[in-house]
What does this fold into?
Amino acid sequence: MSSVVVLGAQWGDEGKGKIVDYLAQKADAVVRYSGGSNAGHTVVVNNINYKLRLLPSGVLFNDKTNVLGNGVVINPGVVLAEIAGMKEKGIDCSNLVISDRAHVVLPYHQRLDELQEEALGNHKIGTTKGGIGPCYMDKVARVGIRICDLMEPETFADKLKVNLEAKNAIITKIYGAEPFDYDTVLKEYLAYAEELRPYVADTGVVMDELFSAGKNVLFEGAQATFLDIDHGTYPYVTSSNPTAGNACTGSGVGPRFIDHVVGVVKAYTTRVGEGPFITELLDTDGPGNQIRETGHEYGTVTGRPRRCGWLDAFMLRYSARLNSLDYLAITRLDILDQMPKIKMCVGYKIGDEVLKRIPASLNVLAKVEPIFEEFDGWMTDISGIRNYDELPENAKKYLAKISDVSGVELGIISVGPNREQTIVLKELL
Ligand code: GDP
Ligand code: IMO
Ligand code: MG
It folds into this structure.
C-alpha cells in the first residue's frame, strides 16, 4: 500500500491533472479532497484533451475508484454534465463515489459570488464565479446543504426553503437583484438528486476499505498552496485548504495514511485572478508574453488570460514546509525551450534587507522585490526526451537550482501534455 498527495505548489494550473493521470496508472483510487468546479484539470491521452472540473483525474481508467471527498463542494449540474460528456467519449464513470457529507453548490451561491465580486469593484478577488466561496461560507456558518440532505427530498425541501428565504433577502435587499423561485430550484435539484443517488456513499468508509485492502491511493489537490484560505495571499485566495493537511480532513482519513507529498510546479509561474505576484512579467512583447503565447496560458474554466512570470523558487521553499513536500513534479519545462535567458527568483528583499520568510501583510509584500538569478536557456525542443540524462545541460542546471532553493528532491519532469511525455526520477507507487 502506498498513498501519495499530489498538489499545486504555486497558484494553480501547474499540471496536477497530467501528473495525477500519469501516477494513476499504478494507483487503485484517486481522491479529490477540496475545492469544486473552480478547478480545471486537463488530462491528455492519445492526443485527446479531457477537461475535468469535479471528476477526479483517474476517471480515464475504468478500473480505478474515483472519490469526491467530504471536503469538496459539489455542483450537481456540473458533475452530471461531466459524467454525460465522458459517456459520449466512451468513458464510464460508474466507479465514481461522492461523499454524503460533501456540501452542495446551489444557484444562489453562484449568484452571490457574482454579486459580491461586482460589489467589491476594484477590490474584487477575481473568482471563478462558481459559487465556491458562498458555498463554503454556508458550510462554516452551519447552514449548508449536504449531499445526504439532497438524498432526502423532504429534508432538502425544508432546508432549501429556509436558505432561499435568507439568500433572497440578501439578493434583493442588499444587492437589488432578482430573487430565486423556490419551486424552480426545488424541482431542478430533486431531479439531480435521483441522478446522483447511485454515486453517493460514506466515502470515509470507502477510504478505510481501500487502505485496509492495501490499495494505492492518490489524493488529487485542486487549486494550490498560495490559494489556501489560511496560507495563501489572503484575501486573494480560494475558500478552502488545498494544502496537504486537508487531504486527510477533506477525505476522512488520518495523517498516518499519507506516505508521500508531491508538489506540482510549473517551470515558471502563472496566476489567474487578482492578488500579489512578485515575479510577474507585465510586458506585452517580452518574455511574459512569450510564455503566455507559447504556453497558451488562458484559463481552462474561464478562458481568462493567465498572468505570467518567472519561477518563484522562494515560494516553493515555503510550499515545501507547509505541505511536507518530499518530491517535486516540474511541468511545462518544454514551454521554456525557446527562451534565450531564463530568470528564477531565489529570494525576497525589501531595500537591502533579505527576507527569511514571506510576509503575511499584503502591504509589506507590496514592497518586496525578487532576487533573481539568470540562466542561459537550452534553445532545444525537449518534448521528445524521456530520460533525464538526455536533457540539455542548461535545463539540468535550471532544474537542479529549483531543487536546491526549494530544498525538495525532483521526482518527475514533464515535457509535454501527453501521458507519455514524462521523465521519472523517482517511482512513487
Ligand atoms: P491543473 O489545474 O493543475 O490540472 O492544470 P491545468 O490543466 O489547468 O493547466 C495545465 C495545462 O498544461 C494543461 O493544458 C495541460 O494539458 C498542460 N500540461 C501539463 N503538463 C505539461 C507539460 O509538461 N508541457 C506542456 N506543454 N503542457 C503541459
Ligand atoms: P486548478 O485546480 C487557478 C483562483 C481564482 C481566484 C481565486 C478564488 O485548476 O489549479 P474561487 O472561484 O475559488 O473563489 O476563486 O482562486 N482559482 C484558481 N486559479 N487554478 C485553479 O484551480 C483555481 N481555482 C480557483 O482565479 O483568483
Ligand atoms: Mg487548472
The chain has a mean pLDDT of 97. The longest helix spans residues 153-174.
